[in-house]
Amino acid sequence: MSLFKSREALLAGAILVLLALIASRFPAFIAPDNLARVFTDTSPLLILALGQTVVILTRCIDLSVAANLALTGMVCAMLNAAMPGVPVVVILLIAVTLGAVMGMVNGLLVWKLAIPSIVVTLGTMTIYRGTIFLISDGAWVNAHEMSAAFTGFPRATVLGLPMLAWFGILAAVVMIVMIRSTPLGRAFYAVGGNPHAAVYTGISVGRTQFWAFTLSGALAGLCGYLWVARYAVAYVDIAGGFELEVVAACVIGGISIAGGAGTILGTILGALFLGIVKNALPVVDISPFWQMAISGTAIIVAVTLNTRNTKRKGRIILRRAQEQTEGATA
Amino acid sequence: MKLTRRLFGGAAMAAALMAGSVATAQEDTVRIALVVKALGIGFFEAAAKGAEEAAAELGNVEVIYTGPTDTTAEGQIEVINALIAQQVDAIAVSANDTDALVPVLKKAMQRGITVISWDSGVAAEGRELHLNPSSNPLIGNMIIKLAADELPEGGKVAVLSATTTSTNQNTWIAEMNKVMGNYEGIEVVGTVYGDDLADKSYREATGLMQTYPDLDAIIAPTSVGIVAAARAVEDAGKVGQVNVTGLGLPSEMAGAIESGASKSFAIWNPIDLGYSATMLAYQLATDAAEAAPGAEIPMGRMGTLTLDENTEGAMADPFVYDASNINDFKDIF
């Protein structure tokens, strides 16, 4: 019974209904090959959403992920264009490190200066985008300037799936394990669920948020390389506005914007839901003028279902938390 | 700012009045200044190459290739003031701002300097004529011609545009539809919009290939779209089956030409543009031709330029790039 009531089950059901609807108009969409392709296409969104999830769990938000992705991608592309001999493993390491450093900047500002995260990341989002322009002079890095190994890596097939998809799966597995079984993973929930109580149990709220941002940044950096290599082009505006899709995937997946509630499985399903919608719209022959409206409606419907489903439970938790907080401060 | 500009314009006018009808000294060599948006841009370096070619052909022409170090109207005004002081015979400018350059260019014209704009125009009162690299009807015809040329038996093509509201793309697609009658057997099965985002364009192109399994060509009259579509065709393993064409830049499309995903694409040729601008400036500076609506002005190997009621003209069809010439252009722009 509780299984049917869980957000994840409901969302999984919604995805199946969605797939059935698409299949009724375009049967080839649910062919295994195509589903694998859709999953591959959704992987960058999934990886970024996983990072965003931990940030949102700690009552923060990271709007700089797409800019972080674009800057890291540009650095990787320029590095590859200048030194084609650098192996992909090194580029991957650089991407993750650079992304993590940019995440740390967000984290430090939120932790040490206690600035609201939405303000911090709005600022760094613009700074990171601007930096791309500074280092590239607005010029593109194009396919013929990149080495074959650089662009070939994300699409190299291992066990029937491209590396890009494997990175999505790997990130999901690591995150599930991390959230479930490490002190840091539990700390994310504790900090978001009740910061005051978290402090009393010896968890530093700021430090936990710092690590959440670092993690989100590192994953964004990883995506930076994967994105640029996949589309074989790097320019200032890549992934423009993608941060909102990432937040949408989390919200659809049932991650509470108020923090402290939601599961990694929910995020995975949320990202898949959005990815399926985005990939299906071009093939189901719907006027492009309607596509945006449909995407938006899908998000609102999914979120409404989610909140309705957990309304009572969520309210009680919040009220209790509030009472506790008031009790603690009194 | 506006005030200084106005004062400046007034001063220029007074100076011109005082100078009276003193014409520029006719020297043996005609000095033509090619003023570009900014120095160090491959596209304009190529245009300068074309200008030199025209100068060599004409014999008695000295080309002064100049411009600001960054793409600002202020920088161009300084450069043009310096050129006026040097008493050049003609200024051919690709403007950073349609209106901001008008006062200084008016001043130049009052001193008897021939002023034309090319590539990026200035308002009509600030120049004698404007040279457009191409025209909407020519572009509309070219993009369908590129697809049709590879499909002698006819076939299905689809259009991948930018956003639903992009004026340029919508105009070109409308012009393309007007001439569809000339291309028998070519059927446009759909138009999709990639919003000039790499990932959305890629998905839309993939969607096209799924919806129309027998699709023969994708026409993308947008530089982001054409690159993404080529990538999508490569990833779908449909190189040779689906030809990606449209408008793109050689540097961005070199990879797609190499892989075969795109057989050919078009964009204006900056060398031809610099060449034509120099030819036109020479014709006007030597009074061999006059810029008036309806005038036909020769521009060497590029034929003649016909001016419309706004004294604007279109140089030529967009230039076609394919495997045979991509390597000459990919490092230029």
Describe this structure in words.
The complex is a heterodimer of chains A (330) and B (333). With 330 residues, chain A is mainly alpha-helical. Chain A contains 14 helices and 2 strands. The model of chain A has no long low-confidence stretch (mean pLDDT 87). Chain B folds into 2 domains: 179 residues, 3-Layer(aba) Sandwich (Rossmann fold), CATH 3.40.50; 132 residues, 3-Layer(aba) Sandwich (Rossmann fold). Chain B has 11 helices and 14 strands. Classes of the chains: A mainly alpha (330), B alpha/beta (333). The interface between A and B is medium-sized, with 30 and 26 residues.
Summary?
In chain A, 76% of the residues lie in helices and 1% in strands.
Gap between N and C termini of chain A, in Å? 40 Å
Largest sheet of chain A: 2 strands, antiparallel
Strand order of the largest sheet of chain A: 1-2
Q: Could you tell me the radius of gyration of chain B in angstroms?
A: 22 Å
Secondary-structure content class of chain B: alpha/beta
Biggest interface between chains: A-B, 30 and 26 residues
Q: How many domains of chain A, as an integer?
A: 1
Low-confidence stretches of chain B: 1-27
Rg of chain A, alpha carbons:
20 Å
The third-level CATH topology of the largest domain in chain B is Rossmann fold
Order of H and E elements of chain A:
HHHHHHHEEHHHHHHH
